[in-house]
Amino acid sequence: MQRCDYLLSQLDVLEAESIHIFREVAAEFERPVLLFSGGKDSIVMLRLAQKAFWPAPIPFPVMHVDTGHNFPEVMEFRDRRVAELGVRLIVASVQDAIDSGRVTEQKGRRASRNRLQITPLLDAIEEHGFDAAFGGARRDEEKARAKERVVSFRDEFGQWDPKNQRPELWNLFNTRITQGEHVRVFPLSNWTELDIWDYVRREELELPPIYFAHTRRVFERDGLLLDAETGFANRGDDEPEFEASVRYRTVGDASCTGAVKSNAASLDEVIAEIAATRITERGQTRADDRTSEAAMEDRKKEGYF
Hints:
The protein is of the alpha/beta class and 305 residues long. The chain has helices at 10-28, 40-53, 72-85, 94-99, 118-128, 143-146, 193-203, 267-276, 281-285, 295-302; strands spanning 32-35, 62-66, 89-93, 132-134, 151-154, 182-185, 214-221, 224-227, 241-247, 260-261. The radius of gyration is 19 Å and the shape is globular. The N and C termini lie far apart (51 Å).
């Protein structure tokens, strides 16, 4: 009898696990939604969702929590990619929440709309009756995210309690919820930033151009290079702007997302750069996560991603 040995690569194993998660959630929940920002992690999630249900279309909409302070290159890519796939895009707007008085915009030099995403996110989940929201969080990004389960329970207020986590044995997920509750689902939990970039190269996925080195007007604050072109970061007179060759490791609210100095203009160059770094992308590029050790955990408890 002939014996066949099958050896899967690391990316194959991660892909298979993520596809299993997508299919399991689609089977167990009535109204899933995929949170899509136009960033590299959500782009990879879209590809995994494509593969999970091919040749059928992706059976759930995608939702972007729009701060209104986004990089134009990312918004252009978001709209174009969603149109190519033919999926329904839902936009939960922070500006609408401000205009309606649901949230109050921060003032001052360090003002950011990043934290204000919580209210429109939870409002949209309630409005559309979503019971499961796919997110692109990875455990290697930050300490609070390392505490998450793959299927992470949220109570009727959208809150996460890290001390009340459900056990996940092997690939068995507890999907039971009651009316008003929902779960966040993280198919990329076991991926690293380097895995994401290797998968982008293997699948030949297009990314917004700000992920690659380009010349940009920036200014320095607390060791971060913040964008000076969009005007969303409140630059002070004592923070001179200058041009530099930079790229972004993550995308988000332009008021608090920093760039890194880089000459990596190709996929191979970016992958080599990521393989050599010892600082997580959030630690190197997110001003709001530097305010305290518990910054991300506090937002997650309030209902943030």
